[in-house]
Structures are given as structure tokens and as C-alpha cells.
Specification:
It comes from Pelomonas cellulosilytica. GO terms for molecular function: metallopeptidase activity. Pfam families: DUF4953, DUF5117, DUF5118. Keywords: Hydrolase, Metalloprotease, Protease, Signal. With about 900 residues, the protein is an alpha+beta fold. Among the domains are: about 60-235 and about 245-265, no CATH class; about 275-675 and about 725-745, no CATH class. The protein has a 7-stranded antiparallel beta sheet with strand order 8-6-5-4-12-11-10. Strand 5 (about 115-125) and strand 6 (about 130-135) form a beta hairpin. Helix 19 runs parallel beside helix 22 and helix 20 packs parallel to helix 25. The longest helix has 25 residues, at about 835-860.
Length: about 900
């Protein structure tokens, strides 16, 4: 029987059964009963009662509301806001991103920040709508494995809510309540707030609302004003706890309550994805990365696509052509008028690199009108924004990208007002509140990656403060005059060049500053033409001359050779059939000295990645980082000398000298980190097997390691390097108008923090491992003269306890250093990991030198004529050391 006939027979049978059931449920009227009127028999059956849970008709819901047409139309009526989702937009990917327009101004919570983005789609399950983040970390270029990937790797729910209307009768779209979707904690701020303040904050929907909306064909944007609250602030503990808790928020009127404005962007993806460009390890580009599990023949399934804007020539045949669509940066109206030209110059500087590869005016700058009623935090305006915080001084240059191709779709540079307010305050006023102790100035130097937070601006502001201090005292430089203003403007341009580089897809390059010679840095003509480094993507120090040297450019003025090279690789238009070969040719230039590259991990981000190549640093300058470290100490010593000789003037800030001294120690903190990397250091080169000649790793020359060790021992660990007169220290007042007024100026505390940083590096397990293993990288003939772990430990111990041999008095500064050394020695002797093979050698070496020190201390303690302070210190030190050596060690 044909399928159609079979279907008809089944339907007839079902109809007959239904008729029989209906007769059984409604038997005929009893005999003799009156017949129903004909009109009653023909009347329609009564309508069943309406389902109270069914969505209301579309027209009823939006009655009186105003529509904003767009990708997802937005409807507003009084405080009610709905998002209309067309039927064809369900299960269709788009880019969902979150920005922060308003914040609280402290502890990492600042305005004008991009939080992140996801490839997302709307999904409907009955009368429920989900906003789902798609899993783009695992993909397949084979249809055979896509089903397995979907089963293996889950998407994530961003938010969800009930359908607010029935389908539109024509468009078949539905409405969802925006408040129900967007007034929760989508960005996960409750966790971030708890991490910062150790208090259980949560979103308060009742006092949150949708404050603004915007829509067009490519974008729908809704800004949610979300209230976060905690029921109470716990009372402080009666007894001090081992690890102090952070204080509650200080920048809000009531620490139990705060508002954030989250800008939620729903952006359409390009209909045709940009052609992906493969990243090369010899250059530093941000990438869109994933694991391609579609084939099992690849040795490494990871795929890395360069992050870049879509840039195409209007005239592909022309040597120089305008782009079809330029990269447009909007300068926000919140940028102070006095800095706008410098900001604009920093953005447009990158056009020089694009002109080299055939693009005219690839970058365009527009100024948001001061009376504009729109916010460029939406996902279609690449912007430069100014923001303020109570404890902030940084700039950031993140971007949102199409995960299918790496195409950059949006970027918002956030720049704190550290130059408009902070730098001048640092240079002329006082120490920032809450940072008057040296420990806070010298604090943790952990380095976040550029996509998270770039510290270049903060460090530049402190460099500027140090430079203005020194130049004012050396040359009579007027801190409020036109020369100081010109320098501040130059630093703004420098920072903007750096951050725009991030938004163009470039990572940090912490090695480029070592590709300019010391002679070139002293040549004003050279630095004005080429800058002071071969990349604006480095954290370049100020080019301050020593006393008596000529002054060249103090900061970067233009792009460097590396910047041109990185832009060429990412943006040069290349025919598809030639791309692989041409990109290989471009990347092969990596062996040219000017194009040296080292990223955040090469510089050091902590843990096992502590940075072992002394050429990849923050805040050094020139082709000899060790020579620069010595120069930085001399510059600091000159500043201390001049600060102590300066006569105070009536009406000046009482904390000016305190701030100058603290700023100099901040600069030395990075110098100590950099110079310590020489000891046990290894030069790393980005080798492509079979393509790039040379070695991937080579230990730092032994002579340089010993020179760095001598400088540390005789410079950074010597009390003679830090000379301050008692008269100067006793004359430094406090700011009695502040609750957190600080304590009397204590140079030993600052020196102790600096020296502790050196000891942390030189006595770390990572340094021990490299010193032990470096001989494996050396030819047999060079191993005998290599720096050994014993030599490093012995040199440190001899320098730190020199008074034990000479019989001299041990002053407070030296006593602090010796205690810091013993604390780290104790860690080496008791660390459980010393049972591992490589650390067994480190443990035995540390124990050997500790035993020698104990013998020397016994001899020193018996010498007559020592002060009570020195004798007590020697007795305490010997007792600690004996206990450490007697302690049992649990070996694994």
C-alpha cells in the first residue's frame, strides 16, 4: 500500500475510534426527552479556559512601548525593557561582550574596562530562553568528529529567563524581559569582590535596573546598573590573626553598598570570516587559539591565529592605497582637552608602520563631541577613555575578537588620569594615601599579562616622578613649567603608542630595549629620530643621563624597527597562494639584532616562569642591562645626595623629600630584580627547528655572572650604598592632616625590602636548579670555569656576614640583612622538595655553608670589645643556626 494511502487509512480509523469514544461519554437522551433546539445543536462548543501560564500576545506586552530597531530590537516602556529575538536568530552565533562603564575606583574595580567576550547564541526550550556561551576551545575541521566534540565538551549558560510574549503573528519573534536576564551577576563580580575584600557581596535585583539601551543593524547594547550589597561588615577580630584581612571598601560612602554599570553587547559576526593568519613564535602577537581535534596525524593539535583588524586595500594593485574600512579610534569626551593632541599623536604614529606595507591612513582618529549623549563603551567603537581611581595608575588595551578567525572587532583603551593628576601629584605634592610605608612602595612585583592589565602607564608615571625630581634638583627644572609639561605630554604619547599597539594585536616585547647601544642613547639626534628602544611595546626606562653626561630624548618618541616588523607580519596583504612562503620570509628576519623579541614569560611572571634571560626585562635601557643597573644605583645615589642638600622652602609639601626617597627605592626594586637574573641566567632564542640557526639555550657568560654577583655583593647588599645623614632623617615631618600619616622615615626598612628581593631570587629553587644544570648546556672545555652553586652561596654568605670575619660592629641595616638571609637559609634546609634529585644538591650545599657560618659565628661571638647589640645579635644568630642544623628533615 502506498504511504499516502496508509496514512489516510490510519487517520480514518483514528477518527472512528474518537467518534465511538465521544458517543460513549455522551449517551443519547432518554426516551421521551425533549429534543434540543436546532439553534443549540448548531452553536459552537464553549472555549476552554485560558492557560494562565501561557505568554501574553506580543502586541499586548509592548502596548505603549517604544522600539529601538536593531540586531535584536529593544522595546522600552517606563522602567520595563524587553529584547525581541527573531525566530531566525535562535541558534545563530553572535559575539556577546561585557564592559564596565561605572565602578567604585579601588582595588581593581575601575571604570572604562573591558571584561571579556564569548561566542554565544540564543536557545529556546519551550517557553524558556537561554543565552549560551559556545565552547570554542575544541574544534574540528572534520565533519566526522564534530558530533563527538559536542558530546565531549559542554557549553556554558550565561543567563536565562522565561518568554515574555507569544510569538509575533508575522515575524514569529518573541520578547524576553531584559531585567530578568541582565540584572544578575553575569560578570562574576561577587567572587571578585570577595577576593578583593573578603566579604560576601551579591547582586541586589530589587535596586538594579536597565539604565540605557542602543541598537542598530549590527548591534544591540543594554547597560545594566547593578547594585551589589553585603548584609553587614564583620567586626574586626579581638586578637590579631596571622594573615591580616584586607579592609572593607574605602572609596564608597557605605562599604555595604555599591553600584556597577555593566554594558552588555550583542554583536553580529561578520557574514564572511576574515581569513585566519597563522601566528609565528618568533614574533609577539596576541592569538585566538584552540585545539583542532579533527585529525589524529598532527603532532600538536593547537592552532594559533593572529589577532588583527580586517584591513583591505581599496585598490589592491596600488603601491599605496587607502583601506576599504580604516581602523577607527574614538577619543572619549572624558579625555582632558590639554592631553587630546598627545593622545591623537600616539594613535596616529602607527600609520607609519602601515604605510610601509602599502596602506594610507589605515588608522583614523575621531573625537567624541563633548555634548554627545552616547557611550562609546559599546562594541562598535574602538575607543580611548580616561578613568579615575583612588589607588590606580595604569593603562590597559584589551580587545574583543571573532573566535572563528582572530579578527579584532572592538578595542577600548582605558587610561587612568595618572598624568593629569597622579604624575603631578607624585612629582610635586605628597605620597599617595595608604602608601607612606616603604613596604607598600616596594610591594609584590607580580606581573600580569597584557591582555589582563598592562602596568606600563603606572610605571611610566613613577619613572616620570623620579626624572622630574632629579632634573629639578640637578638643573633647576621647573616642575610646573613648560618643559615639565612637554615631558608629561611626551609620556602620554609614549603610553598611548604602547596601548594602541596592544589593540592592534601586539604583545609586549621586553627585549627590544637591549638592541640600542649606550652611545646611541647619548646621541640626541639619534634618539629624536629613532627613539630610545626598538619597540614601544617594551617597558622602557627613562633615558636619564649620569651627572655630566649630555641629555638626549628622555622617553620614546616614535615606533621602533620591531614595531614595523610585527605590523608587516600581521597586516601585509598577501595572495592566499603566496601567504605561507611570504610569512616565512618575514619571520625569518628574527635573527636581525634590531628585531630581538621576548614576551612576558621571558621577562618573568612568577612560579617556574621567573624569567631567566637577563636581556628580557622591564625598566632597563641599552645593550648592557648590567651596566644600566649600576647606572640606576648611581642616579638614585645622586638624587639622595641632592635631596639631603636641598633647603626646604616655606609652604612646600611636608612629604616632598619622603616621596623622592621612596620613588628612588621603587626604581631600584626593578633594578634589583633585573640584575639578579644574570646569576644562573640563560640566554633563550626562539628557534624554529630546521629553519633558524643557532642554539635555543646558552648559559650567560661566567664572567658576566660573576660581575653581576660582585655588584650585588658590593653594591645592593652593602650599607655603604645607602647613605643618609641623621640630620636629614630627623628633619622629615609627617602629614598630620591625614589619618594614615605614616611613621618616621626609616631607611633600613626600605633597604631591607630591596635586599630581600635580591635574596629571594638568588636563593630560590629555580636559580639553584639552573646553576646546577647549566653545565649540561656547555661544551666540556667550558664547564670547569662555570659559576657553581657553591660559589654563589659562598659569595653571598661572605658578603652578608663580612663583619664576622673582620670582627667589626654590625649595624641595624646589616643585622636586618643577616636575618633575611637566615630566614631563606632555613627554608632551604627544611623544604620538603629538597628530597628531589636536583634540590638534594642544593640542600647539601646550603647545609655545608650553614655549618661553616656556625663555626665562624662562634669565633666572632668570643671576640672582646663588641657592643651589646652586636653581641646579642651574634648570639641570637648562632642559636637560630644551631637549631636549624639540628632540626630533623623529612626526606622523600
Amino acid at each position: 500500500m502506498p504511504r499516502t494511502a496508509l496514512a489516510s487509512a490510519v487517520l480514518l480509523a483514528l477518527a472512528a475510534i474518537a467518534s465511538t469514544q465521544a458517543q460513549a461519554q455522551n449517551p443519547p437522551a432518554p426516551s421521551g426527552a425533549a429534543s434540543a433546539p436546532a439553534s443549540a445543536a448548531s452553536a459552537p462548543a464553549a472555549r476552554p479556559p485560558a492557560d494562565p501560564s501561557a505568554p501574553k500576545p506580543f502586541a499586548d506586552v509592548i502596548k505603549g512601548a517604544k522600539e529601538q530597531p536593531g540586531l535584536f530590537p529593544i522595546w522600552r516602556k517606563d522602567e520595563k525593557v524587553w529584547i525581541e529575538i527573531p525566530k531566525e536568530q535562535f541558534n545563530k552565533p553572535f559575539l556577546f561582550s561585557v564592559n564596565v562603564a561605572n565602578s567604585i575606583g579601588e582595588r581593581g574595580f575601575y571604570a572604562s574596562q573591558m571584561i571579556g567576550d564569548e561566542l554565544a547564541e540564543w536557545r529556546r526550550i519551550g517557553n524558556h530562553v537561554q543565552l549560551v556561551a559556545l565552547n570554542t576551545r575544541y574544534r574540528s575541521d572534520s565533519d566526522d568528529s564534530k558530533l563527538a566534540l559536542d558530546q565531549s565538551f559542554s557549553p556554558s549558560l550565561i543567563t536565562s529567563g522565561g518568554v515574555a510574549s507569544a510569538e509575533h503573528p508575522d515575524r514569529k519573534s518573541v520578547l524576553v524581559d531584559a531585567s530578568g536576564l541582565l540584572l544578575g551577576d553575569i560578570p562574576g563580580y561577587s567572587t571578585r569582590l570577595e577576593q578583593a575584600f573578603r566579604l560576601p557581596y551579591g547582586p541586589d535585583r530589587q535596586n538594579s535596573f536597565i539604565e540605557s539601551t542602543r541598537a542598530d543593524a549590527q548591534l544591540s547594547t543594554l547597560t545594566a546598573r547593578v547594585h551589589f550589597a553585603t548584609p553587614r561588615i564583620p567586626a574586626p577580630p579581638l586578637v590579631p590573626i596571622p594573615v591580616p584581612l584586607p579592609p572593607p571598601p574605602q572609596a564608597v560612602p557605605d562599604p555595604r553598598s555599591m553600584f556597577f554599570s555593566f554594558v552588555y553587547n550583542f554583536r553580529a559576526l561578520p557574514e564572511t570570516p576574515l581569513a585566519a593568519r597563522a601566528a609565528d613564535l618568533r614574533l609577539g602577537h596576541f592569538t585566538e587559539s584552540y585545539s583542532n581535534l579533527g585529525a589524529d596525524v598532527r603532532a600538536n593539535p593547537r592552532v594559533h591565529m593572529v589577532a588583527r583588524w580586517r584591513l583591505e586595500k581599496k585598490d589592491p594593485a596600488a603601491a599605496l592605497s587607502e583601506p576599504v574600512q580604516p581602523i577607527t579610534y574614538w577619543m572619549d569626551k572624558d579625555i582632558p582637552a590639554k592631553y587630546r593632541e598627545s593622545v591623537k599623536a600616539g594613535i596616529l604614529e602607527w600609520n607609519k608602520a602601515f604605510e610601509k606595507i602599502g596602506f594610507k591612513d589605515a588608522i583614523v582618529v575621531k573625537q567624541q563631541p563633548d555634548d554627545a549623549d552616547w557611550d562609546n563603551m559599546d562594541a562598535t567603537h574602538a575607543s580611548i577613555r580616561w578613568f579615575t581611581g583612588a589607588d590606580v595608575g595604569f593603562a590597559i588595551g584589551p580587545s574583543n575578537r571573532d573566535p572563528r578567525s582572530g579578527e579584532i572587532l572592538d578595542a577600548d583603551i582605558g587610561m587612568s588620569d595618572v598624568f593629569g593628576r597622579g604624575a603631578r601629584r607624585l612629582a610635586t605634592d605628597d605620597v599617595p594615601p595608604g602608601q607612606q610605608s616603604f613596604s607598600s612602595w616596594m610591594g609584590d612585583r607580580s606581573h600580569q599579562l597584557a591582555e589582563d592589565q598592562c602596568r606600563y602607564m603606572a610605571d611610566q608615571a613613577h619613572e616620570l616622578g623620579f626624572a622630574l625630581d632629579l632634573l629639578a634638583l640637578r638643573e633647576g627644572f621647573d616642575m610646573t613649567g613648560p618643559e615639565a609639561d612637554a615631558l608629561a605630554q611626551a609620556v602620554v604619547k609614549d603610553v598611548i603608542m604602547h596601548e594602541v599597539g596592544h589593540t592592534l594585536g601586539l604583545k609586549h616585547n621586553f627585549r627590544s630595549s637591549t638592541t640600542v647601544t649606550q652611545a646611541q642613547l647619548r646621541d640626541k639626534a639619534y634618539t629624536e629620530a629613532h627613539g630610545i628602544s626598538n619597540s614601544v611595546m617594551d617597558y622602557n626606562a627613562f633615558n636619564l643621563p649620569l651627572r655630566g653626561e649630555p641629555r638626549a630624548s628622555l622617553t620614546n618618541t616614535t615606533l621602533g624597527a620591531y614595531d614595523y616588523w610585527a605590523i608587516e607580519y600581521a597586516y601585509k596583504q598577501i595572495p592566499a597562494e603566496q601567504e605561507s612562503a611570504e610569512l616565512g620570509r618575514i619571520a625569518a628576519r628574527s635573527t636581525e639584532p634590531q628585531l630581538a623579541y621576548g614576551d612576558d614569560f621571558d621577562q618573568g611572571v612568577g612560579g617556574p616562569y621567573d624569567g631567566f634571560d637577563p636581556r628580557s626585562n622591564q625598566r632597563d635601557l641599552g645593550d648592557d642591562p648590567l651596566a644600566y643597573a649600576k647606572k640606576r644605583l648611581k642616579l638614585s645615589q645622586e638624587l639622595w645626595e641632592r635631596v639631603q642638600a636641598r633647603k626646604p622652602e616655606p609652604g612646600e609639601d611636608p612629604l616632598r623629600n619622603r616621596r623622592s626617597v621612596a620613588e628612588s627605592f621603587r626604581q631600584l626594586s626593578m633594578t634589583a630584580h633585573n640584575v639578579s637574573k644574570y646569576v644562573g641566567g640563560i640566554y633563550a632564542e626562539r628557534i624554529v627547528p630546521g629553519v633558524t640557526p643557532g642554539q635555543a639555550f646558552k648559559p650567560v657568560d661566567s664572567a658576566q655572572q660573576r660581575e653581576a654577583l660582585r655588584f650585588i655583593a658590593t653594591g645592593l647588599l652593602s650599607s655603604n650604598s645607602f647613605k643618609f645623614s641623621p640630620e636629614f632623617l630627623a628633619s622629615q615631618p609627617l602629614d598630620y592632616n591625614e589619618w594614615d600619616r605614616g611613621l618616621p622615615l626609616a631607611i633600613p626598612d626600605a633597604v631591607a625590602a630591596l635586599q630581600a628581593q635580591v635574596l629571594d631570587r638568588l636563593m630560590s629553587p629555580n636559580t639553584a636548579r639552573r646553576l646546577i644544570e647549566q653545565s649540561a648546556y656547555l661544551p666540556e672545555a667550558q664547564r670547569k670555569g662555570a659559576v657553581s652553586l657553591s660559589e654563589v652561596y659562598g659569595t653571598l654568605q661572605s658578603a652578608i656576614f663580612s663583619e664576622v670575619k673582620t670582627g667589626g660592629e654590625i649595624d641595624r641595616m646589616r643585622r636586618s640583612l643577616q636575618r633575611e638571609y637566615l630566614r631563606r637559609l632555613q627554608g632551604q634546609l627544611n623544604r620538603a622538595t629538597n628530597g628531589a634529585a636536583v634540590y638534594a644538591d642544593a640542600f647539601s650545599m646550603a647545609r655545608y655553608h650553614a655549618s661553616q657560618l656556625a663555626r665562624d659565628l662562634r669565633v666572632a661571638a668570643a671576640r672582646p670589645g663588641l657592643s651589646t647589640e652586636t653581641r646579642a645579635h651574634l648570639a641570637e644568630t648562632l642559636d637560630m643556626l644551631d637549631n636549624m642544623l639540628k632540626a630533623s628533615l623529612q626526606r622523600t
